[in-house]
Amino acid sequence: MPDIVLISDARVAAIPVEESGERLVDVRGRLRTDDRLADPEGAFAHLRLGLLTRLEEAQSQLPDGYRLLVVEGYRPLATQKKIFDGYSAELRALHPDMPPAELRAAASRYVSPVEIAPHTAGAAVDLTLATEDGTELDMGTRLNATPEESDGACYTDAPGLSPEARHNRKLLGVALDAAGLVNYPTEWWHWSYGDRYWALTTGAPAALYGPVSI
């Protein structure tokens, strides 16, 4: 696999944010959603409008019988911190001698540090593919599988996937890429628009979205 720029990279943090002020909108009723990570406030089902319209465009480009299934969008800062700290603690237990900087980078393969997290800006979405009746398609791993759990199969271009999983990842990627989203290469399910990682990947001079409250 080619070298991957992790979201904890200093080049990502150096991207300025020119906040557009675009509102967070509820995707329910516009795209199919899943409630496995639902929160009482419904934050999980909110995205910036620019991201949602691009997801709708991607949906329109999928073959008949295929549907995007949104699992998680916006995350409050406290939720992001809890996930990052929890996974960092797991890694620390596995690798007690790992230096702090390496630990932070390793954790960022799976969850972004709070200060640059695109989910807290409503700029990222975790999603998969499903059939018309809501049956999830084979993507090679479960959504949100860690690198340790999946032996690296969570990486978008991981080797050794079944032909079906490879086909489904490509189908998802082609539609989302054409709609202007970028993928985080360590997580096949994570796509974003308007955040710092998107800006670095596309060469945009600034991110469009910074942290926001619902």
Poorly predicted spans: none
Summed over residues and divided by their number, the pLDDT gives a mean of 95
Largest sheet descriptor: 5 strands, mixed
Strand fraction equals: 5-15%
Label the structural class.
alpha+beta
Which value, in Å, is the CA radius of gyration? 16 Å
Q: Could you tell me the number of beta strands?
A: 7
Report the end-to-end length measured between terminal Cα atoms.
37 Å
H/E element string? HEEEHEHHEHHEEH
Strand order of the largest sheet: 2-4-5-7-6
Q: What's the number of helices?
A: 7
**Helix fraction?**
25-40%
Shape: globular
Q: Can you offer a commentary on this structure?
A:
This protein has helices at 10-13, 49-61, 77-94, 100-107, 147-150, 163-178, 196-202; strands at residues 24-26, 32-33, 46-48, 66-72, 124-131, 182-183, 190-192. The chain has 214 residues and is an alpha+beta fold.
Index terms:
214 residues; alpha+beta; five-stranded mixed beta sheet
Blueprint (SSEs and pairs):
Elements lengths: L9 H4 L10 E3 L5 E2 L12 E3 H13 L4 E7 L4 H18 L5 H8 L16 E8 L15 H4 L12 H16 L3 E2 L6 E3 L3 H7 L12
Parallel strand pairs: 2-4
Antiparallel strand pairs: 1-3, 4-5, 5-7, 6-7
Helix pairs in contact: 2-6, 3-4
